[in-house]
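Write out the 3D structure for:
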Amino acid sequence: MIIRVSMVVVTSGLLSAAGGAVWPYLILYLHFSRHISTPLAGTIVATEGIATLAGALVGGILVDRFGARNTAALGTAVEILGYFLVFLARTPPLFFVASLIFGFSNVRYSARNVATSNALPGDLPATKFFSYDFMASNAGFAIGTLSGGLLIDLHRPTTFLHLLVIGMVVGALAGSAFLLLPNDRHVSEHPVDASYREALFDPRLRRFLVFAVLLSFTSYASFDTGIPALIGIALHKSPQVIAIGFVINPILIVLLQRPVYSLVSRMGFRRTLQLTALVFGVAWLVPLATAYRHTTTFVLVDLAVFAAIFGFGEMCYSPIRTPVLLALAPKRLRGRYFGLSQFSRALANVLGPVTATEAIGHGLAYFWLGGLFALGSINTSIGKKLGRQVEHATTSPRGTTAFDPEADPSGEDSTAE
C-alpha cells in the first residue's frame, strides 16, 4: 500500500509542477496576451472560486456516498477538462466558462486527503505523511513556477498554451494513481443519514471554518493572484521577476520542512495554529516597502523575504491541516467536514482575487496589504481557541498526545471495496 500512496505523492508533485507553470501567470496572460482589464481578469480568476463553493459541498457528499478515491479521480478528470477549456478560450465569456468548469475540479483536494489518509499504513502518522507530501508538492511547484516564468512569452500566447497541454497529460497520470488506492466507503448503522446540517451543529467545526476562511484569505487566496498583479501590473515588472521571487518559497519548503515539522510536533496544535495565523499576517507587511522603492533588484529582494516568511507559515500549517479535521470529524461525517473545509477555502478564493485586483487596479494596493496584516492578527486569537479544542479532542484517557489524531470516538467502521 505504501507504494500506491507514494505514487499519489509523486503524481501530485507533477501536477503541482504543471499548475505552477501556468496559474501564477494566468492573470498576466489574460491582461497582456488577451487584452483583458485587470479588474475583469481578477473576476475571471475568482469565478473558479465560485464553482469551488458548489463543488466543495458536492464533493463532501460524494466522498461519504461513493468513496474518497472515486471522488478524487473524478475531480482530476474535471481538472483535465478545465485545462482544455482554458486552452480553447479567447474571449472573456469563454474564460468565465472555463474558470467555472475548472473550479469544480477542486472536489479532488479534500477527497484526495481522505483517500490517502485511509490508505496510510498504521505505522505512518498522518502528520508525518502530509509533511512529506507537502514537500513533494512544493518541489513540483518550484520547478513549474520557474519553468513557466522562463518559458512564457506574453507576446506569444502559444507558449502559455503549450504548458496547458502538459497539464492535461499530467492530470491523466494523477487520476490513474488515485484509482490504485482502495476505495474506503464508510458504512454506518446510524439511523440518520449524514448531512451538512448535522456537521454544522458542532461548534468546533464552526470555529474551524471561520479560522480557515481568514487563513486562506490571508494566504493562498491573496498570494496566488495578488502578488503577480502587484509585481507585474502595479510595479511593471516582468514574469521572470515573479518567477525568481516565487521559486524561493517552495525551495525553502523543500529544504526546511523536516526541521519545521519537528518544531511543530513539539509545539502542539494550539501554538501551531496561532503561529500560522500570525506569520501569514506579518508576511504582508514586507511588500509595503515597495511603496518607497521599486527598482527591480529591490523588488526581487523584497519578494524573496516575503516568500520566505510566507513559506514558514505554510510549513507550520501543512502537517496539521488534515489531522485537525480528522480529529474533529466522526467517520460517518468526514466527507461533510472536509467538504465544508474546502468550501471555506473556496469562499476566500472568490473574495481574495477580486479584492486584490480591485484594490491594485484602483491604486489601493498598500491599503490592501495593511488589511491582510490586520486580518491575520485577528485570526491568531481564533487559532488559539481552536487549538485548545483540537488538543482536547485528540487526548485520550490514556494520555494520547496532541499529534495522534487517529482515535475516532464514533466507534463506527469502514469497509474497503
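The longest strand covers residues 184-187.
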